[in-house]
Design a protein that fits this description.
alpha+beta
């Protein structure tokens, strides 16, 4: 799993906020689909016959691993008996899998006890951004891509999935190349 790049450069020696320098210069924004970035926990779910047979969670490299050149995250098995994974399994239980085909699917675990519940959701659920008919629920057709417009536009947007709340940001998905890039509201100074 590769980290999704932020579209603008950061002030690395200062506040780490973005500046107006576009760093994903070879990305085709015109043909990309802009979706709401959901603030939860990234998981990978394995489904067989509409039944979950494996739950994995994202693991980021440690500082030591980063110093060894490991930069991209990976998935590790979640443990139904571990207190820290409890709400991931509640999210699985709170999700309808009738339209999820067999396979391994990336999803975002969301809900009351995950990441501070910025979407103001009741209970816990999964959102399968890796499935097109789910992704369609969080599309923004009017998302700008230039620095000043995004800086003003992002904080004014309401979540397509949450209850009376703003969005964390936008992720652009290119349907032909599979490439993605992102921007968060908090990235701006």
């Amino acid at each position: 799993m590769e980290k999704i790049p932020t579209i603008f450069d950061r002030n690395w020696k200062g506040d780490r906020k973005v500046n107006a320098t576009l760093v994903v210069t070879d990305f085709d924004f015109e043909d990309a689909i802009a979706t709401e970035k959901l603030d939860g926990m990234n998981v990978r779910i394995t489904v067989r016959n509409h039944t979950v047979v494996r739950v994995e969670k994202r693991r980021n490299p440690s500082k030591t691993q980063k110093s060894q050149g490991i930069k991209d995250p990976w998935y590790v098995d979640a443990d139904a008996n571990a207190p820290g994974d409890k709400y991931l399994f509640e999210a699985v239980e709170g999700t309808d899998f009738s339209e999820v085909p067999d396979g391994e699917w990336s999803a975002e675990a969301l809900g009351e006890k995950i990441q501070g519940n910025p979407l103001n959701l009741k209970g816990h659920t999964l959102f399968f951004f890796s499935l097109e008919h789910w992704k369609a629920k969080v599309i923004f057709v009017d998302a700008p891509t230039d620095f000043e417009s995004l800086k003003n536009w992002l904080p004014a947007q309401k979540s397509r999935l949450g209850n009376d709340c703003g969005i964390e940001g936008i992720v652009w998905h290119h349907p032909k190349t599979g490439r993605m890039c992102k921007i968060k509201v908090k990235d701006f100074g």
